[in-house]
Amino acid sequence: MTGTTTAGTPTPTAAVPQARSPQPGTGGDLGPANRWTILAVLCVSLLLVALDATVLHVAIPSLTADLRPGAIELLWIVDAYPLAAASLLILFGTLGDRVGRRRVLLLGYGLFAAASAVAALATTPAVLIMARALLGVGGAMIMPATLSILRQVFPDRKERALAIGLWSALAAVGAAVGPVLGGFLVERFWWGSVFLINIPLMAVIWPIARRLLPESTGERDGPWDVLGAGMAALGILGVILGVKRLGGGAVPYQPVVVVPLAVGAVLLWLFVRRQRRMRHPLVDMGMFARPAFSTSVGCIVLAMLALVGLELIAVQYLQLVLGLEPMETGLRLLPLTFAAMAAGLAGSRILHRLGPRMMVCLGFALTAFAVLALTAMGQHDRPWLLTAGFVTLGFGLETTLFGAYESMLSEAPAAQAGGAAAIGETSYQLGAGMGIALLGSVMNAGYAPGVSGIPGVPAAAGAEAGHSLGEAYEVADRIGGATGEALRTAARGSFVHGLHLTLVTSAALLLLGAIAALRLPRTVEAPARAQSEGADLEGLYGERTRP
Predict the structure, then answer these.
(1) pLDDT by residue (tens digit) across 313-332?
(2) Is Membrane one of the keywords (predicted)?
C-alpha cells in the first residue's frame, strides 16, 4: 500500500510498480506465516549493523594501546564506518531497486563478513581504517535493503506498521547492547574479537536469507544513473564530514569545515537538478511534493538533531559530574532503550488509534516534556528523576521516529522502496551529525565562559580547561591544591549550566518538530491505487504465491 493522503490531495495515477515474482529456491513459496520469518531475518540483519556502530566504543583504549594510532588516525577509525554508510545509502538503496534488493542484501552480508575479518586481524591503523570503511559499505548495502524488502513483503499497512515497530525495536537493542557486548569481549579476549563475532553470525544468516527472502525490483525502465549515484554519495559524504568536523570543535570558517560542506552542498544541488531532468531518475523528487513524505523526512532530521548530541552530553554528565563508572552509566541508560523498544512494539496500535499526525506530534511533545524535566538535574545524583526522564524520552523519541518512518515508507511508491528507505536512513544520519555539531556548540557556549578567569589558573590552562569537562579535570589535577579544586568545582557547575542550556535548546527543536508534524495526514487512509497495489503484492507474497 502506498500509504496516507490528505484531504484535497489527488491520488497519484501512476502504474502499479513491477515486482519480480519469487522463483523456486530463491525465496519463493511464501505463505502469510513466512512473512514473520522473513521479518526475523531482516531484523537480525539490522541488529548486526546497529551493533557494529557502537561495539567498538569500549575497545578504543585497548586498540590504541596495541596499534598506537595518531589522533587523526584514531578519529578516522571511529568515523570511517558511519561516514561510508551514510554517504552510500542512496547509492545502494536505488541500486537495489534496479538489480534486486535481495541480491544487494546478500552482497552486503558477504562484504560485511570479509571486512570484519580484516578489521579483527588488522596490524596497522591504516588497515583498520580501510576495513572500517568497507564495513560501512556493507552496512549501506544492508540497511535500506531490509526496509525496502519489509515494504514489499508487508503490503497491508496495519501489518507493516507492526513489522516496522519490531524492526526499529531491534535497532535500538543493537545500539544499546553494542558497548556491553564489546566490553565483555575485550575483557576476555582482545579488541579484534568485537569484529570477529560478525563472521559466524553472517555465515548462519546468509544461506537462510538466500532461501527465504523474495527477490523484488522496482521499475527497470532506463539505465541506472551511475553519475547521479556518485554525485549523491560524494555530496552526502561532504556535508556529513563538514558537520562532523564542526561538531568536533573545528571553527566554522576553517577549511576542514567550509570545503567539504561547500563541495557537498553543490554536488547535492546538482544531483537534485539532474534527477528532476531525467526521464528515469534514481530518486523521484516528486515524492518530496507529497506533504506526508517530505514532512516525515523533516521530522526524522529534527528528532535526531534534537537528541543525538544531547545523548553524548548525558553520558559525560553521568560519568564526569556524577562520577559513575562506565558499566553504571550503561545501566542508567538502559531504561531509555527499554522504553524505546516498548514504543516500537506498541507503535502499530498507537498509529491506528491516533493517526500519523497525532502520533508524531504526541511523540515530539512527550520527548520535549522529558527533556525539560531533566533540567532539574544538578551536581548531585537524582536517580529516580533520571530514570523517569529517560523512560519518557525513550518512549517519546521512538514514537516520533516510528510514526515518521511509517508515514514516509507508506507514502512512497513500492517501485521506489529502496530509494525511500535510503532517504529515511540518510536523514537519520544527517540529523545525528547536525545535532552533535549544533548542541555541542550550544553546550560549549554555556560551559567555556564559566572556567575562564579563575584566580590562580594561568590563561593557557584556563583555555585548555574550556575545551571539555574531562580536560578541566586533568588541568585541575596538574595544578593541585585549592586552586585546582576551585577549577574543578567551577568546571562542574559550568558544565551543568551548559547542560541546562542545551536541554532547553533541544526542547525548542522538538516543539518545532511537533508543529511541523501538523502537516502529516490526520488518519491512516488507503487510497484506491494503494488497495490495488496491495492486492497485486498479495499475489506475489501472500497465499497465492506460486513458483
Answers:
(1) 777 788 778 887 766 776 77
(2) yes
